[in-house]
Amino acid sequence: EILPDSEYLIRILFVRHGFSCANVPWNACTRNATQLSPEGMGEAAYNDAVTKLNGLLLPNQPASMVGMNLSWGIKPRDWPIPGQSKTDGKSDDCLVKVLNSTLINDVYNEFGNLVAIRQLVRDPHITACDQHRASVAADKLSSWLEAEDIKFDLVGSSSLKQAIETVELVYMRNPSKAASRVSKIMPLPYLNEKNMGTPFQPENYPYPVEVQDAQMRELLGANATPLDPAFA
Q1: Contact yes or no for 142/175 (Cβ under 8 A)
Q2: How many helices (H) and strands (E) in the chain?
Q3: Of 17, 94, 108, 140, whose CB count within 10 A is highest?
Q4: Within 10 Å of residue 104's Cβ, how many Cβ atoms?
Q5: Per residue in 161-213, pLDDT tens?
Q6: Do 36 and 74 touch, CB atoms closer than 8 A?
Q7: Burial (CB count within 10 angstroms: exposed 0-12, middle 13-18, buried 19+), residue 95
């Protein structure tokens, strides 16, 4: 029971979310891009890939880049950027050129029309590597939680799936059972993320809670903790 006009100690634990594919350059984007080229993939497979990438940039939520310049194609990692760049002057991932006319041509930053492939996936999952790291972190944290006799009253997260999946692995599945009385993960309001390096960032635009629920169960198993839609 919470009594009015009383003092309570509130202890808050934070964990940084694991990486998603939006944080990591694609392995296919080698320096000579042999894997993402008509020569490396075959003309038909390459054209199919470009068509799918173009579809990710067409009008939809959270925004539209109008589509990609199909004749410009896909440029490899370490491709020299003609204009200003947020990197050292070379691309750090495979690039596409978007058709949004409000952006500056051949510039690779938040104002430019060059966009990294890793930026095209909406609300991505945590990577397999960081699923493992989150599980290791849970094991390391467990002894401290037990020693401090900590039991969670609430497990919250930003609204992004990679953050929700991180707290699922670190807190909800913690060996200490510290979250045993928490039945749902609560995506909290006003916790937004923004990538200042790109004009197009569907990775920071969450799917609806019911979609995230289904996607988490697909990745982490049927016993994945459901989400609380209170602030959805």
Answers
A1: yes
A2: 5, 4
A3: 108
A4: 14
A5: 999 999 999 999 999 999 999 999 999 988 878 778 888 888 888 999 999 99
A6: yes
A7: buried
Q: What's the pLDDT score for residue 39?
A: 80
Q: How far apart are CA 74 and CA 97, in angstroms?
A: 8
Distance CA(11)–CA(14), nearest Å, equals 10
Q: Which two tokens stand for residue 227?
A: 């989400």
Whole-number Å distance between alpha carbons of 74 and 52? 12
Sort strands 185-187 and 155-157 into parallel, antiparallel or unpaired.
parallel
3-state DSSP assignment of residue 217? helix
State how beta strands 185-187 and 114-116 pair: unpaired
| Interacting residues of 118 by C-beta distance below 8 A, sequence separation 6+ | 21, 22, 23, 24, 25, 26, 93, 203
User: Is residue 23 within 8 Å of 63, Cβ to Cβ?
Assistant: no
Instruction: Please give the Cα distance from 49 to 35 (Å, whole number).
Output: 11
Residue 112's pLDDT band (cuts 50, 70, 90)? very high
What does the longest C-alpha to C-alpha distance in the chain come to? Answer: 72
Pairing of strands 95-97, 155-157: unpaired
Q: Which of 52, 21, 44 is nearest to 131 (CA)?
A: 21
